[in-house]
Amino acid sequence: NGAAKGKVVSMPKRTRFANTRSGFDYLIVGAGFAGSVLAERLATGLDKRVLLIDRRPHIAGNAYDHYDDAGILIHRYGPHIFHTNSQQVASYLSRFTKWRPYEHKVLAHVDNQLVPIPINLTTLEKLYGLKLTPEDAAEFLKSKAEPVAEIRTSEDVVVNSVGRELYEKFFRGYTRKQWGLDPSELDKSVTSRVPTRTNTDDRYFGDSFQQMPLHGYTRMFENMLDHPNIKVMLNTDFEEVRHEVQYDKLIYSGPIDEFFDFRFGKLPYRSLKFRHETVDQENFQPVAVVNYPSESVAHTRITEYKHLTGQVNPRTSLTYEFPADDGDPYYPVPRPENAELYRKYQALADATPNVTFAGRLGTYRYYNMDQVVGQALSMYNRIVEAEERDGAI
Ligand code: FAD
Fold this sequence. Notes:
The chain contains 13 helices and 17 strands. By secondary structure, it is α/β, with parallel strands linked by helices. The longest helix has 26 residues, at 154-179. Flavin-adenine dinucleotide is lined by residues 29-35, 53-56, 61-63, 77-81, 237-238, 253-254, 272, 330, 359-361, 367-370, 372.
């Protein structure tokens, strides 16, 4: 039971709780996908009164986007590309936004040229000066692969499928920068996500639905939260309101270890620093994202947003990403000891009544946006079932 920590309360006066005698059915912490989807569902579907808070000055969590000084729609927390195979998730979000077709493409800066990643037939042709059929490409990769008897680490996964040379060109440096750990120290799940192709398909994702919200994520969230039963408070930390607001149930999409005052220690996260800049040229790079696997530069990738939005502008806006140990929690570090530590917090969470942990930080798992939406919709269904069981509806 966390005592108030004496932080400076930064809420504007008019949002303090003059008027909450009747209280809220739900207090939801975090206005990212997890918190906002649940707020919308509970308000619309079950007519619940919801207070949604976020410690940041905006809604949309890490998917937050806004127009910069040049008028270009940029993503404050790095590029967020929407893709899903779930029809349910796509049609749910389509209630709040129209879409712009966009298939994500990524190039990697390797051997002083830009080549497709995931590695495909074109990548091999460019790197090795070859002319290949898909069969040749498969044969070539087979000749490079170095079978590993027991695949445990991220290094094993890649060396086993494409061999050490391509592993070193594309994965070793990138992973070391991204995670601050050698791939040999990281769970195999990290690099298992990246496929290898023997055709010329250069799309980063293979999902059936690949589109960007037409007017951006923030606008989509605004539409989602535009409901008389939902009150949103920004610049508001859970600690500031947990003893001030009356509510029946809590949904918490912040870091689970923080909720329990780091009782068993801190769950490790990898963070990022972003450098946003606008340059006086119409185009900067041929695709939205270029990866820089070499350890000779500190950034891991550069994003150019106009590829995502289709905007026409004489200038162009970019984001450089620099991985870091400290800062906002972005990526749970997938190592067995961290999973073990999370399980301790999960057991505590299971034993805490009237609190549900949701989202990426609440469940210490790297989820894409569509997975978080899917998770929130399932949580909502379970709440409906429980209310039906209890005879509340
Ligand atoms: P968040 O969006 O992190 O929202 C949680 C919110 O809770 C935050 O706004 C935080 O301020 C607030 N909060 C936390 N603690 C408190 C507290 N104590 N009090 C008040 N508020 C609190 N997914 C994709 O599908 N495609 C991509 O291309 C993609 N790219 C990504 C790139 C980067 C750099 C990162 C970091 C993630 C990316 N993701 C991508 C993942 C995506 O960001 C997440 O799936 C999504 O944001 C998760 O939503 P969430 O609601 O769980 O968490």
